[in-house]
Amino acid sequence: MTDDADYRVAATSFGAVAAEYEQGRPGYPDRLFDELERLAGRGLKGARVLDVGAGTGIATRLLAGRGAEVVAVEPSPGMGEQFLASSPGIPLVRGSGDELPFHDRSADVITYAQAFHWVHPELAIPEAVRVLRPGGAIAAWWNVKDETVPWVRALGERMAAALPGRYHGYGMIDHHAGHFAEAGLDVASAVLRWEREITVDQLIKDLTSRSYLASLDPGPRAAVLADERAALLAEFPDGRLTEPYVLRLTVARTPGGAA
């Protein structure tokens, strides 16, 4: 996470681009949840799960599809409004990982899908431990575009050139995930590779929803996105592409579970 001033600007930028977030952001393969269950040492079916930083509900809906009794936690009113439209029937609570509005020992699993880098670990981890039942698990994961693929690397280079000092990828995932071990939790991890077939328009919506662009004024943002659309169409004239991801999962278990 950046310093608090930059954090507040970036963290509050998502509400205005919630529709693009829902339409453009990637989902997650079933294998992610298989690995989550394996590392957590329990199934998701019937588990009380809090999905923190739920956004528009992309991960929340998949957790519910695995049979979890899931409650979404989201601080942004704009994202919350889109969540209610996109994820009917799933409970939504206004809140953040730094101050969870739940009773002690009331959850089995707490998830942060593409969200743990938005919390203050010194607050969020003790809060999660407080709310989890003995042997409960915290799961944090990130979809990262695979920059070993030339066109993905070129996209990142264009963003860095267009947005100096503002563009960021997910280069600090190890740092973010390292907070769990520092807190004395039992940590395990997995890395999955997967890909999705999308259009250039979908990728532009995905980029629109990224904080480094969402927090820009509309004029400069539109100019950057127009240039990027042109570059992508030069690479993919039919407007379709395969987007590769490296999905990095960390699961931290609290004491007290079955051996």
Distance N to C terminus: 34 Å
Roughly what is the average pLDDT, rounded to an integer? 93
From the alpha carbons, calculate the radius of gyration and give it in angstroms. Answer: 18 Å
Percent strand: 15-25%
How many helices in DSSP terms? Answer: 11
Share of helix, binned: 40-55%
Shape: globular
Sequence stretches where pLDDT stays below 50 over 5 or more residues: none
Largest pleated sheet: 7 strands, mixed
Query: Strand order within the widest sheet?
Result: 3-2-1-4-5-7-6
Number of strands: 7
Structural class: alpha/beta
Along the chain, the helix and strand elements come as HHHEHEHEEHEHHEHHHE
Give the topology, please.
Blueprint: H1 4-11, H2 18-24, H3 30-40, E1 48-52, H4 58-65, E2 69-74, H5 77-86, E3 92-94, E4 107-113, H6 121-131, E5 132-145, H7 150-162, H8 173-182, E6 186-199, H9 200-208, H10 211-214, H11 218-235, E7 240-253
Characterization of this structure:
By secondary structure, this protein is an alpha/beta fold. The protein is built from eleven helices and seven strands. It has helices at residues 4-11, 18-24, 30-40, 58-65, 77-86, 121-131, 150-162, 173-182, 200-208, 211-214, 218-235; strands at residues 48-52, 69-74, 92-94, 107-113, 132-145, 186-199, 240-253. The protein has a seven-stranded mixed sheet with strand order 3-2-1-4-5-7-6, with helices on both faces. α2 packs across α9, α7 (150-162) runs antiparallel to α11 and α9 (200-208) packs antiparallel against α11. The longest helix is centred in the last third of the chain and has 18 residues, at 218-235.
